[in-house]
Design a protein that fits this description.
58% helix, 2 strands
Length: 60
């Protein structure tokens, strides 16, 4: 049986594989999630963060 930490690590790993996210995008996305900020973006790297981690994003 997997623990919550293992499940969270697996989710993050899968999210990064799906989009090939760069470190800076993860930092920006995490900052926006933690501070409840909506991110205006034109980068497909943020879409998995919206779907799986609750990022509020507007794609233009």
């Amino acid at each position: 049986m997997r623990t919550n930490i293992e499940i969270d690590d697996k989710l993050i790993e899968e999210t990064m594989k799906i989009s090939g996210q760069k470190t800076i995008n993860m930092v920006i996305g995490t900052f926006c999630i933690e501070n409840d900020i909506t991110l205006l973006h034109k980068d497909k790297d943020f879409i998995p963060l919206e779907i799986y981690l609750g990022l509020k994003g507007i794609t233009y």
